[in-house]
Amino acid sequence: YEKAEPLYLESKAIREKALGREHPDYAASLNNLAGLYQVMGQYEKAEPLYLESKAIREKALGREHPDYAASLNNLAILYENMGQYEQAEPLNLESKAIREKTLGREHPDYAASLQNLAVLYQDMGQYEKAEPLYLESKAIREKALGRESPDYAESLNNLAGLYRIMGQYEKVEPLLLELSTVNMRLIEQALHHLSESELNNYLDKFSNGQNQTLSFTQIADSKKMISVCYDNSLFYKGFLLQSVGRIKQLALSDAGTAEKYTLLQSYHRRLATQYAQPIAKRDSALVAQLEVKANDFEKDLARTVAGWSQANKQVTWQEVQAALKPGEVAVEFVSYRFYQKKLTDSTMYAALILLPGTDSPQFIPLFEEREIAALFKNKGARKSDYVNTLYTNSAQTTGGQKNLYQAIWQPLETALAGAKTVYFSPAGLLHRINFNAISGQDGKPLADRIRLVQLSSTRQIALPQPLANAAASPDAMLFGGIDYEPDSLNKSPALIPQDYAHTREDIDFEDADSTLRGGTWGYLPWTEKEVNSLQGILKQAGLKPILNKGADGSEEVFKSIGAAGASPRVLHLATHGYFFPDPKRLPQQAATGVSAFKGAEHPMIRSGLILAGGNYAWKTGKPFRPDREDGVVTAYEISQMNLSNTELVVLSACETGLGDIEGNEGVYGLQRALKIAGAKYVVMSLWQVPDAQTQELMTVFYTNWLSRKMPIPEAFDAAQKTMREKYEHPFFWAGFILLR
What is the pTM of this model? Predict the structure, then answer.
């Protein structure tokens, strides 16, 4: 929005000077600027612009022109947003009448007027007036735009919301079932031609439907709706995350495939343009031709590119269930804004539980987010005290709020009775928890009585992720003992720029401590011991470890991984990591040094790793030398790499599991970046972990895996158990989690 405003203002000024203040194009500029202020919530700026635009259009075009009707419509929506219903209604009625007369009763714009008037009546509590308008609008959109248009999906969503308010649940269910199908189809179409960031923005359009579907399922006892919620979770949490990166990697596997994929994208882009038009205005011959070409290219890629079909395959809850063995359970956690008469500010959590042999999943409501959000706020306590309190069963917040066990696990105990292994996929704040460390009623961690396997999506149970190359590379790339000062700092102090002076105070973190892998980017002595120790273990197992220490642990070396050949089987990064929350939720930061990363809009730039020489860029916002990388590798940069041949990535750093939480799509940070890049297993941290105990945990883990020949998940669980038996407090053993 901040980029759009000056452009609208400049356009408006040019039209005012060149065409005058009574020209329809000047009115269009006023209307567009008002629309921008409206979506920004600046209603007081929008209203006079809408009024002026309406007056110009009335004088220049007349009261029966579609543009005048549009002005009435936009102003009505503004007044509705402002709660001024009595001013909105006559504007809506007049706009509807004009569109009916000039465009006809089958035009999408007339359907939009019906929809807007229905929304107004719904907000006014006049449900009997709203229903026939919603129904007529839906019928027009179905005929004029088709059943796979976003406008038709909006009609389904709004009509379902009305019936829910009216208590007519039998009418809600079929609408939400159809809405889920339509939304998935729209997103599948977009997947083929939008970038990841564009796709993420596009997904926002469907969030209300998801909120309403989950909210309705919470209050309605319907096996059909629960099944749909599970399938939706597999789609939104699993398919989109894994497919975006996987399809991109496969498409770029060779020049011939890349060319085909580029053509496929162009066909889908052109199809999207056609689908956005009313059916009557589409070039039906072109649509048919493009659909055939796109289908042929997809079949060709599926036939010739290994892994293509799997990357594009949808998975249902029945397929996940069929892959479960006796004693295994799958749990999809979901979070959603609760929908009553309108969307509320309450974010609810629930668990979708899938047991072998049942005829549908179970839906178990859990808690409201604010009930446990306070548990994650560190009010100046030492990190160890904070972590230990968080995971202790007796932990209570003020006001009698629940602890982690009471909020998350206790409601599931009955449904999980007899389960030996629980595969689970977190949502929202649950990404910040090590489930193994939650203390049960007996005061012992859950890890002592049940095997917990964390997945990005339980889709992985039905479609396990194979390595790109079955004969995995024997290489292991290790980073540790890194020098974070500029390369020439110790060699020639005269070359140090005068504006560079690194101190602990320059880096804005709580509880900065050089023995924790986070905070100040000081040298970490145990990381060198860690990679030296791992080197021997890897050699004994027949792998070829490549150590990158000191100035050799650079961003240039890191980014060369997978660029000209297969990525290594093991990638171990013992270094500093960082994560900053959304700057919109924080006080305004100065635009210098660390703020280049802290204040970034893109969530995958606010999460990353520090490599050789990174302190200079961290402080100044620019690389030490213009011909070198800056030493701060962001999650976004990692997501562009090809790690499809890497079996294990270990982020032996602080807070590498954190990132912005975007609804059910998961954490937009390092873990998402590495999954997009193609890594199979990722070990990452949830808090600033102690240096010595981290080195100890990693040594035991690698020994279990490579020397004792244990599978990676079992090797990791056993390593944490060893640490748990030695160190009572979770701070020392539970900081790392394994994401499959």
Answer: 0.78
